[in-house]
Design a protein that fits this description.
With 182 residues, the protein is an all-alpha fold. The protein contains nine helices and two strands. Strand 1 and strand 2 form a beta hairpin.
Length: 182
């Protein structure tokens, strides 16, 4: 569930692109020009692996170009399964929380493989901004994003309507975060 939630939320074309989602890059470029600042990156999971492993977090054109070159090399060298595994293991899920397994234990006290759809959606949503969307310190923000992830999973056909309803009924910002909805 976590792998599917992360792919659907972060990079729905992950299995069909070669490290770049040109449509998403175009949408991001338009939004950034409209805003007059850098507000959206258009990164794929592969590009995030390149950034997380080898580059700084600075938002510069030079860093983006280096990220693109590294993404091409990663795609040419590793399988999609390996890229996803690396991403899940190096991603930041909160303050001093690195890797999906550590995050699942921290937030839910269980292995990542045992997460419900609601829990997986909450964790996938954290990746967008691990500090602002931390469910322990910003439960309302985390919950809003969790619902967006669940809605996207439904739209992409990863959840049935019944699974979606069960997941949303069991997740709210205070206390229960969506367990037992599988």
């Amino acid at each position: 569930t976590l792998q599917q939630a992360v792919i659907t939320w972060e990079d729905p074309t992950f299995y069909s692109h070669n490290g770049f989602n040109t449509a998403e890059i175009g949408r991001s470029l338009v939004r950034n020009i409209e805003a007059g600042s850098y507000i959206r990156g258009g990164s794929t999971i592969t590009k995030q692996v390149a950034k997380n492993l080898y580059l700084s977090r600075e938002k510069t054109l030079r860093r983006k170009l280096r990220e693109a070159i590294l993404a091409r090399r990663i795609e040419a060298t590793l399988t999609k399964r390996e890229i996803l595994e690396i991403y899940l293991n190096v991603a930041e899920w909160g303050p001093n929380i690195q890797g999906a397994e550590t995050a699942a234990q921290y937030y839910f006290g269980k292995p990542a493989s045992d997460l419900s759809w609601g829990e997986a959606a909450l964790m996938a949503g954290i990746l967008q901004n691990p500090h602002r969307l931390n469910p322990r310190t910003r439960p309302e923000d985390a919950h809003r994003n969790q619902l967006k992830v669940l809605e996207k999973l439904l739209r992409h056909g990863k959840l049935t309507k019944g699974e979606f309803i069960r997941a949303t009924e069991r997740c709210h910002p205070f206390g229960n975060t969506g367990g037992e909805d599988r």
